[in-house]
Amino acid sequence: MTPGLAIILALAVPLVGMAAILILDRAPNFREAATLATGAILIALTTLVFLSVGEGARPGFVLTTVVGGLPIAFQAEPLGAMFALLASVLWVVNSLYSIGYMRAGDEKHQTRFYMCFAIAIASAMGVAYAANLFTLFFFYEALTLSTWPLVTHKGDDKARHGGRVYLGVLMGTSMALLLPAIVWVYSIAGTTDFTPGGVLAAPLQDSGPLPAILMGLFLFGTAKAALMPVHSWLPNAMVAPTPVSAFLHAVAVVKAGVFAVLKIAVYIFGIDFLSASGAATPFLWIAAISILLASAIAMHQDNLKARLAWSTISQLSYVTLGAMLATSMGAMGGALQIAAHAAGKMTLFMCAGAIYVAAHKTLVSEMRGLGAKMPITFILFFIGAMSIVGLPPAGGSWPKFLLMLGAADAGALFAIGVLILSSLLNVVYLLAIPVMAFYLEPAGAGARSQGSGGKPIDWRAMKEAPLLCLLAPALTAALALLLFLFADPLYRYLLPMLET
Amino acid sequence: MNLAAQLPVLPIIIPLIAAPLTILLPPRRLKGLLPYVFATLVSWIVFAASAALLHSVATAGPISYHMGDWAPPIGIEYRIDLANALVLTLVSGVAALAFPFSYASIRAEIDDRQLSMFYAMALIAMVGLLGVVITGDAFNVFVFVEISSLSTYALVALGAARDRRALTASFNYLVMGTIGATFFVIGLGLLYQATGTLNMADLKIQLAGESNRMVEAGFAFILVGMGLKAAMFPMHLWMPNAYAHAPSAVAVFLAATSTKVAVYVVIRFIYTVIGADFDFAGAAFNWLIAPLAVAGMMFASIVAIFQDDLKRMLAYSSVGQIGYMLLGVSFGTEQGLSASLVHLFNHGLMKGALFMAAACVVLRLGTQTCAGYAGLARRMPLTAAAFIIAALSLVGVPGTVGFISKWQLLAASFDSGRPWAAFLVVGASLLAVIYMGRVIELMTMREGAGGRTKEAPATMLIPLYILVAANVYFGLNTEMTVDLAERAAVALMGDAR
Amino acid sequence: MDFVTFALERYNYWIFITLMMMGLYIVIARGNLIKKMIGLNVFQTSVFIYYISIGKIDGGTAPIYLPDDLKARTAHAGDHAPSLAGKSEMGAGALRPDESLHDGFDLAGNDLASLTAPAERPDAAAIHAAPAGGANDILAAPALTIDGPGAGADLAHQAADILYSNPLPHVLILTAIVVGIATTAVGLALIVRIREAYGTIEEDELEAADDIAEFGHIPHKPGRAA
Fold first, then answer.
1. Is residue B160 part of a domain?
2. If you measure CA to CA, which chain A residue comes closest to B375?
3. Is B96 exposed, middle or buried (CB count within 10 Å of its CB: 0-12, 13-18, 19+)?
4. Are B302 and B323 within 8 A, CB to CB?
5. Are A33 and A23 in contact (CB under 8 A)?
6. DSSP A108-156
């Protein structure tokens, strides 16, 4: 099979899987088997593409041409191939977790849930392999729409409100800012193809503030990257079931956003033009503010998922920051951050879900002493938190290092300070949780106490979450550790994206 | 006689003859199937003829047909180029779906005895619209406009069986429509006085380089007159009520075609007759059409958000969408014009589908209030799915025709150096997200009053889904719409020079 | 006094405009639907008059083909024999500007030559000349343009040696009259139905009835007397 074909199949297979899920509506075991089988095939396909890109190939595929020479086309390049592989692997891991979580929680509309997930992953593949902005936008919107039913899964007033904000912000910004920006680029450069070295450098020579305006449209139009002030959808999306938060709002959706930002910076503007035109400078500051402000807000969140969501906003801005540094080290740091944060944050979310399933606790303040009852969960949480903070031996330490190097290259010393300060804040609001769980006495231990949902919980009978709910975070935690060891091959793999 | 040579007149002559015949068919025998089937067949023949015309024009260039073999400019000329072939195909295509669609809906909404009359009038309304599009004679436009308007007044009034407000809506439409048509005639009179001809192509030749107050006044009268018919803001007041209270099937046809035809006439007069390089036209573009288009886009979309009646909401949305088309026209560039033509076609597809879905709901649930749509996704899943896809198309989600329209319009805005217009367009489509999202949320997230209801019959669902499929198909394959519209725009601009 | 002359010469337009405004005013200001219809009719009729007046040529006869012997007599019946198309002759100052309704205007619309002999048009320049003059003269003081003895004028001279009124606007407006009658008929039929359904044909009462149907009460609208 040629890699070009593999790209198309990577988009088609999840859709076939979706059909299978629909057909197997009445047989849950087979239905879940269909999800997992789809995931396995998808990993094989994305791996194939990944390896082929590693050998220097740039497999592509033109699906159809829509408007005036604008094709829906795909082309794999290192960043996209990495994102696709990451997403497909984590999808399978997350599916394992979903099965445990959804069954333990006896959730309704499970078929719809898995179907929407399959469409979402197909859209994420489309984003990852998009060869031009037009295709990227196409799948970006598909991703928004297909995840909306997942966000509103619970169907209550809170979910409705969350869904409204989710759709409103994501679609609103993408239609009001991203689409005009894309058309503007098309109008200026005559193409929206992702081209190494960018397409805007020549036509926008000495054009005043226009590059900065365009960059602003792109950055705020890609609200999935959650740069402040277009971040508000993310905390609201936390009404979704935990697997959705874990996969979509730590990996697929948000990473699609920062991935798009990075691609636009590298392949549309081009790193050199970005730094020469000064288009990035204002947004470097906004990204820095976003990092610190989101971290500060995260410290005040007692709800664990909300805290993780705010942490995500902060961490996503690392990638934006990396892109806006407009240096090769910064861009590389951003790229690695995509992978490292995905593994780390997903671990954290799945641990949060495991705690909810086993102990019905959602508030951080209630987790004191829980470590004794759920040691594995909290150890995994600890590893995830280390990766987010950027402590060796977790994968998250490399991107921070590269970002600092990039900041030094760009002469943006304040960015180094921001990164250090943010890591300290991370320590406070993330690492403190497992420490509390292990070393503090539980409040009202030994007696019956209330769970977050108001259900009475027998403290003594509490134990670890179901096996599937532990296996999945264990895998991602392992990935977070592996990323530390294998950062160099990944670095070398990604390096060609900066060649012009 | 060579039938192929007579092709241009067939879309007019066949339904014109068929309409009186329809009245003769018994409305109450065989459940009224006779007039229904007859009218449907006629509409299909007309569509086939229009499609053949489009094909012929696209491959062999414009056709000029001389009515009664009287050579223009004395005789009436039917002149078909790409621009009107495209609109012709839209009108006859929507008709070819609206006629089969109408049966169940119209039988439920009007008195059985009126069935033959209804189909006769519907055919005449169609003839009128087709005639407006096909003719190359300016006065003929007026005649056809009135033919379609008169039958439309009656069709709208038929909604009185369900809601008496249809009568007042129809009366208001009549008053406004007549004023509009009369303004149009005044404008024609002034142009005639200035040139001594009524043939559009000849008018163009005579007016070349002309710029004086008489022509300007004539142009202004024509613009206002057709603006009224096109429901151009702020002359749209007749439309929401007329669409809301007309029988559902009538609303489908009107919403998808009638205002588009009026917009087409505006385009035709600006480019083919007056000429866009005419100074006054430039001023009208910048200081009249563009501001009104923008005001319509914004104002009507905001009003749509607050409507309780779904059909009225869709009607206000149409006023806003007319604004998009006029905005494209006002750029005065080939791209803007082609974006307008594309949107004209695409909007017909989406509004047709939306009104069809609304008609299905009226048939089964008897309601057209937004609140009545609560839980529709569970009660009538097929209808709801169709509505959602069409609504996404209206909003402009990629993969639908709405996106194509928006893309073209944005590209035209940027290329003509009007970034502000691009942001106004996307701003207006955000408003569309709100008013459509509100209904979609009701449909999917709320529980309805009743349990699962019977779906609409196949005669309604099949045309509905054909239109929905067209919304997606033309959103992915724009070979027909965009390419033809671009060629049509080039030709129109060529006319204008 | 030029302006007064200019305005008075065009009295047919003043009639048309006055009627039109009256009609529109009635449509807008009257609440009774029948009165609205009447206003609409006045409005439409004003346009009919406009069309009829632009087609009329002073001294012109009905456009009916006459045998040769009658031609001569008819030709002398008018004050001045030269046809409209023979502008070059008229331009010599033979006419007093205030003498008739239309002589002062060189209306291209009434230029029969361009209508009757399209196939014989010698060249584009000649075609162009007639309307160009026609359009401008409406705005300029009623002086006549001299086309010069072009080939087109010659041809036209041959084609029409009798002064005809321009029949085309009359024919056009015949169509519009029919349309107007149809509109009135539909409008009146609607009024009958409205009266049956609502029991009134006063607009404010109709609106109140609709408001009650929609909101359950009459919403307060500023500016409307209770």
1. no
2. A155
3. buried
4. no
5. no
6. S-HHHHHHHHHHHHHHHHHHHHBSBHHHHHHHHHHHHHHHHHHHTTT-S
Neighbouring subunits of A (3+ Cβ pairs under 8 A): B
Distances (CA, A) of C153 to C64, C92, C137: 22, 15, 18
Amino acid code (one letter) for A71:
P
Residue with tokens 């490292």: A340
Supply the range of the domain harboring residue B435.
317-497
pLDDT in tens, A55-86: 877 888 887 777 766 788 888 888 888 888 88
Please report the residues numbered 154 through 193 in chain C whose beta carbons come closer than 8 angstroms to any beta carbon of chain B.
168-169, 172, 175-176, 179, 182-183, 186-187, 190-191, 193
The beta-carbon neighbor of C50 closest among B143, B189, B210 is B189
Helix (H, G, I), strand (E, B) or coil at B430: helix
For residue A464, which phi and psi values (nearest 5 degrees)?
-60, 160
Count how many domains chain B has. 1
- The b-or-e profile of B437-461 (16+ CB within 10 A means b, else e) is bbbbbbbbbbebeeeebebbeebbb
The pLDDT value recorded for residue A189 is 85
* Interface test mutation site (partner A, options B333, B416, B442, B444, max chain A beta carbons within 10 A): B444
CB B358 within 8 A of CB B311: yes
Residue at B232 is within a domain: no
C157-171 b/e with 16+ CB inside 10 Å = b?
beebebbbbbebbbe
Instruction: Please name the residues between 27 and 86 in chain B that touch chain C, using a CB distance below 8 Å.
Output: 71, 73-74
Q: Write down which chains contact chain B via at least 3 CB pairs under 8 A.
A: A, C
Mean pLDDT of C28-46: 92
Count of Cβ atoms closer than 10 Å to residue B308 Cβ: 13
The one-letter amino acid code at C64 reads: I
CA distance A388 to A340: 8
How confident is the model at residue C122, as a pLDDT? 39
Q: What ipTM score was computed for the predicted complex, to two decimals?
A: 0.89
Pairing of strands A449-450, A456-457: antiparallel
Q: Is residue B213 part of a domain?
A: no
Contact A330, A272 (CB under 8 A): no
Nearest Cα residue to A182 out of B479, B326, B403: B403
Q: Answer for the pair A431, A386: CB distance below 8 angstroms, yes or no.
A: yes
Q: Which two tokens stand for residue B263?
A: 């917009």
* Span B176-220, pLDDT tens digits: 999 999 999 999 998 888 888 888 888 888 887 666 788 888 888
The answer to whether residue B375 is domain-embedded is yes
A186 contacts B411? CB cut-off 8 A: yes
